[in-house]
Amino acid sequence: MNAPLTASRLSVVAAALTDADGRVLLAQRPSTHHHAGLWEFPGGKREQHESPLQALRRELHEELGIEVQSAEPLICIPFDLGQRPIELDVYQVSRFAGVPVALEHQALHWVERRALAQYPLPQADRPAAAALSRPDRMAVTPEGIAAPSVAEGVIGLLRAGHRLIQLRCPQLDASAQRELAAALLPDVRKFAADLLLNGDIEGAERLGCGLHLRSAQLQQTRPRLASGQILSAACHDLADLARAEALRVDCVVLGAVMSTATHPGRAALGWAGFAQLRACSSLPIYAIGGLCADDLTTARRHGAQGVAAIRAFWPLP
Ligand SMILES: Nc1nc2c([nH]c(=O)n2[C@@H]2O[C@H](COP(=O)(O)OP(=O)(O)OP(=O)(O)O)[C@@H](O)[C@H]2O)c(=O)[nH]1
Ligand SMILES: [Mg+2]
């Protein structure tokens, strides 16, 4: 059965068309349309009788003259901050017949994934650009274990394919956490991964690594980080998300989606609550709280960049 079209959000389907080199097609919106001149993923409004895939096939035929052969769901973004609330359902399309031609757009560009964010995109597209270019998992180190075990576990995470690791060691003082980060950074860089220091602004500035701000730190001015140093932030509600957006963070971690043993007192958002908050921000958002890798598909269906977890990802017993 087709997902119902609701009056509250306009249902829009769009395609991240990829070529053999993994580049993604962006299309520049016509000067006569809403969002004129911005670069978007080709697609358009789903009609009442259509499934998302039927709408995608029709739109890509009309706009690019191609036939879609297969499409995988990438991310479905509820977004309420524009002129009209939309649900932007983005599919990854790597198999299609024909060569895309700009039948309705001003121009087409094949873009390296890392360069997507440099294009002026509609606000709702930012989470899709991040879904195409940034890790879908953030691993957070568990508390209460000695520094050598944290180091061993982080190496295990890198070997298991994790590329975004938050070093969170409340059991160590700030200087010991910083020392541990400094020792781990050569390995982190060898794996082309990113390490985020939890809460230690000065440490991240000095070491040149990433930083994860606690929600209580969101009132401060933006830390002095270079463009390659990822800035992330813990958020629990709308006010946190607004502050994180004002600090121009690269991503946030939002939860708890499910109730967890580590934070038993905190009310869980559930996926519906998560999506409501997601719709009020254009930031890439990792969902956290009682989640594991099996929840990635559900997370993406609710507009998340992916899943952040402690125990579910930790490779040591
Ligand atoms: N196709 C597309 N639309 C997007 C994206 N991001 C985004 O906010 N939108 C918004 O979604 C809405 C519908 O898109 P559209 O203008 O392509 O619709 P359409 O192809 O059916 O065109 P039409 O209005 O001429 O019939 C527009 O308000 C558009 O700005 C995106 O990446 N791709
Ligand atoms: Mg369109």
From TrEMBL:
Pfam families: NUDIX_4 (PF14815), TMP-TENI (PF02581). One of its GO terms (molecular function) is 8-oxo-7,8-dihydroguanosine triphosphate pyrophosphatase activity. One of its GO terms (biological process) is DNA replication. It is an enzyme of class 3 (hydrolase). Its EC number is 3.6.1.55. InterPro entries: Aldolase_TIM, MutT-like, MutY_C, Nudix_hydrolase, NUDIX_hydrolase-like_dom_sf, NUDIX_hydrolase_CS, NUDIX_hydrolase_dom, ThiamineP_synth_sf. Residues 7-134 form the Nudix hydrolase domain. Keywords: DNA damage, DNA repair, DNA replication, Hydrolase, Magnesium, Metal-binding, Mutator protein. It catalyses: 8-oxo-GTP + H2O = 8-oxo-GMP + diphosphate + H(+); 8-oxo-dGTP + H2O = 8-oxo-dGMP + diphosphate + H(+). SUPFAM superfamilies: Nudix, Thiamin phosphate synthase. Belongs to the Nudix hydrolase family. This is 8-oxo-dGTP diphosphatase. It comes from Pseudomarimonas arenosa. The lineage of its organism: Bacteria, Pseudomonadati, Pseudomonadota, Gammaproteobacteria, Lysobacterales.
